[in-house]
Fold this sequence. Notes:
Distance between the termini: 45 Å
Oligomer: single chain
Number of domains: 2
Strand order of the largest sheet: 3-4-2-5-6-1-7
CATH superfamily of the largest domain: P-loop containing nucleotide triphosphate hydrolases
Number of helices: 5
Mean pLDDT: 92
Helix content: 10-25%
Strand content: 25-35%
Radius of gyration: 16 Å
CATH class of the largest domain: Alpha Beta
Bound molecules: zinc ion
Order of helices and strands: EHEEEHEHEHEEEEH
Amino acid sequence: MSKVIFNYGCMGSGKTSKLLTKFNTYKRRNKNPLIIKPCLDDREGNFIGWGVTKSRITKYEEPTFYFKDLEKEIEKLEFGVLFVDEVQFLNRNDILTLCRIADEKDIDVFCYGLKTDVSGNLFEGSKHLLALADEIKEIETLCEIENCSCNAVCHIRYINGKRDYSNKSIAIEKDNITYKSVCRKHWLI
Length: 189
Ligand SMILES: [Zn+2]
């Protein structure tokens, strides 16, 4: 019986490195793993098709399929194990599609993503995974505020170095927008 596994963690917790490390193990054992990712993560450009997933920590990269319509596009891909990055951006139907891959095709699905947005609310994809995944694992990381040793659970967005209190949910780092992963106490301040 295959499983849907949700690995969640804050930004900077090393999710992508962990995904790539696990992917590599499956690749070396000839399990035909595949990495997919929703195309709206525009850190690497907004496009559909083949690109790469790169670890900012290890600089290691692997081919990745960027999808727009998961249910339709997944049919054309071949894989023995599925890795899904940036899973927070998926919708309910996407998560149900992943569950069917595990249940009907008997393929393990490893999902990686953020749990909560800057408002402290669950991302759409993460909410449905928390409800439906077989296993839920936290990738822990420390709060980025100086001298704090609590576990980071939330994010703060900064625009031009100032904290942004607007509730825009999408978490993309670019230009003057940066994020910090923080503990609940520092998020509430
Ligand atoms: Zn803290």
